[in-house]
# Entry
Amino acid sequence: MKYLSITVSLLLLSACSMPLLALAQQGPPPGLPPFLHGIELNDTQQDKVFAATYAQAPELREQEKIAFKAHEQLRALAASSAYDDAKASALANTAAQAMAKISLLHARLEQQLLAVLTPEQRQQAQQRDDARQSPRHLQRAE
# Structure
């Protein structure tokens, strides 16, 4: 009886997880930048995108931690009775430098990923980016 209960539990668990597995397979590959969503990549391209994205992950994570910690310390300093403008300025500069490095990492990655694409795929990515950008430009112009 105990084995039957375990078997039934395992069958129910696997039956419940099948729709989740199907949904996971439909979405874009993990770590895929938004400008590549909807662009069909071959296996070699997917491997190169994966390698480039995950190669920068440790440095990106480190800069995100630095920026977060500096912002957190700056908020705490601003709320404390021992506010020091020089220390606040140093924390703000630390956060800004980390954010600048993050922006640079994103720009480098985008350039690396665009180099993986065919000319037709680059055109698709540009068209998607133009379509995403145009509503914002219209709102600013008004």
User: Anything to note?
Assistant: The two ends are 72 Å apart (CA to CA). Residues 7-28 have pLDDT under 50 and may be disordered. Residues 7 and 61 are 42 Å apart (CA to CA).
